[in-house]
Amino acid sequence: MIRLRMGLADVARTRFMFSPLAEVVESLYQLSSGRVSPLHQGWWEATRDGLRGVDMALLGAVVPTRAYVADFLLVAATDAGAIDDQLRLVAESPVAGIRADLEAVWGREPMPARARALVAEGAAGARRLADELWRYWSVAIEPHWRELSAVLEDDVAYRAGRLTGGGVEALLSSLHPEISVRGEVLRIDKPRHSVDHDLAGDGLVLVPSVFAWPNLVVDKRPDRSASLVYACRGVGTLWGGDSRDAEYDDDALGALLGSSRAAILGCLALPKSTTDLARELGQSAPSVSFHLSVLRRNGLVTSWRSGRRVLYRRTSLATELVTGGGAGFERG
Predict the structure, then answer these.
(1) What pTM, to 2 d.p., does this model score?
(2) Given pLDDT bands bounded at 50, 70 and 90, which one contains residue 5?
(3) Nearest CA among 212, 253, 154, 306 for reference residue 21
(4) Which of 173, 202, 236 is the last residue in one of the domains?
(5) Is the pLDDT assigned to residue 108 strictly greater than 60?
(6) What is the CATH number of the domain that holds 303?
(7) Do residues 190 and 178 touch, judged by C-beta distance below 8 A?
(8) Which pLDDT score is estimated for 121?
């Protein structure tokens, strides 16, 4: 059992973070198992040919499917920044730390030859690993980052709703079945661990991940904020080949709402901004904005602010109309 003691300062400093490197690490962890989740089959089919140019044997030796993930990777993955900044931290990781982390990952089993060779290279090995992680990112994650970010943003909006409706306990308890809150203690049910850690005002970083399911990854280093990498919601909306629903009665829905508004709803299975929709549909941003305001007033889209952007997503009522679940739009 892992127990993280949270004071008022920790609650105040709890925040969300999107991490490109977390998606790299979590997807590699899944590939190392030799079994890609059915949720990600579309991603795997689009990615596997490109991975022939990546040293997957090396990456599999560093990120195997074991009980632990190397701490130096977690440190970089939970540091706010773009992928370049995160991989710079990997390249600058102390060699002694990399060796100790990989020994902990492999436990009683000897490290594979590729991992031993990497450690033996010293600082050059750390830089080579960062370069290989970059190649993997370029093939497997970067081409899909826009869609992944939309799912991550949607998850954070949902968690914000949990916080508004039920407070911090409701937010944290919703992240994963292993998590529960008792008083000021965040409990994580991991039988292989026995940890009692006081966050001491450093707060908690919550990192949603598309590829983490069904795992929950905990980083509790004493010299930095603790972090939880958890599986986000909405992964089933990905990898369909197009962000809009492939099968909806465009004619019937267009007759009801107008073709432009029907097309906008068809694109909003994932959150998008006005600019995203205008680019995707070939319409002007003012026109899209006008249609969105009409749809929002009628309960068919919802919106929220994410940084400088306002994101829109269709409501459950609109999804029923788009997918044919509503009366009068059943498909034969």
Answers:
(1) 0.76
(2) very high
(3) 212
(4) 236
(5) yes
(6) 1.10.10.10
(7) yes
(8) 95
